[in-house]
Each structure stands twice: as C-alpha cells, then as structure tokens.
# Entry
Amino acid sequence: MSCRETGRHDAMPWAGGPYSAWRQVFPGRVASVPEVRAWARDLLTGRVAAPVLDDVLLLLSELTTNAVAHSDSGRTTDGRLTVYLARTTTLVHVEVTDEGSATSAPAVRVPEADDDGGRGLWLVDLLATEWGSHHDGTGRSVWYQVTG
# Structure
C-alpha cells in the first residue's frame, strides 16, 4: 500500500479494459454517510465480489466521515462533498472530494486501543491497494483503489 500526493489524472484507473464511472454530490453532513454507502452499494452490488464490496464500502464510509468531520464541507451550512466511483475489470477506484480545510490535512495515525476514532486513513492504508490525496484551489480529494 502506498500514499502519494498526486494530480487527479495520475490516480485514475482508465488504462486496460472496460469501465463504469459514477459521480454524485452529497450534503456535507453526518446523515450523508449512510446515503453515500447505500448509493455505492446499489451501484456495485453484482459488479464486484462481495469481499471487495465490503472493503470499498468500509473505506468509503471512513473517507466520507473524515470529509464531514475535518473539512469545510461539514463546517458550513451549505457544505458539499463529491464522491466519484469507477470500476474496471480489475479494480474499484473511489475518490471523495471535500471543500478543504485550513486547519487539517489527511494523515495516517495508528490508533491507540482505547481510541474511539482516528482509524479512517489507517484503515485505508491497511486495506487499499493504493491511495493518495491531492489539493487544488477548490478542495481536497482523497482516493483509493481496491483490486478484485
């Protein structure tokens, strides 16, 4: 597994085979986390193996929660986050874009046994084949890929 700060196009899985891609904008609120999971589950069920789907949904929940908790998407009344999903014959690519933050940046932190939180990017680092983040003038994106 690896994390890298990258430009958006370097991270996309388009080379090699047919693919499907979807994009959806959600409100930057806690209630969006299960909505994002349901949206992704509906799109990917039957298109990827069940263990891959489980990993994709878990990591998507973590990134969505992070976007709401740690970015301006969740701090402003009209905050939004965008979820991008792509599936090829060999992998699933997921990207969550939020409105950025002046006070925080994505970082992996090994959680303590008694921590109630802080496992999001640690789980992404553990389960994703590859992941990274990038920042542009409109926000920050964190992406990951799961093979299978």
Remarks:
- Strands lie at 3-5, 19-27, 80-88, 91-98, 130-136, 139-147.
- Helices lie at 8-11, 32-44, 50-70, 72-75, 120-127.
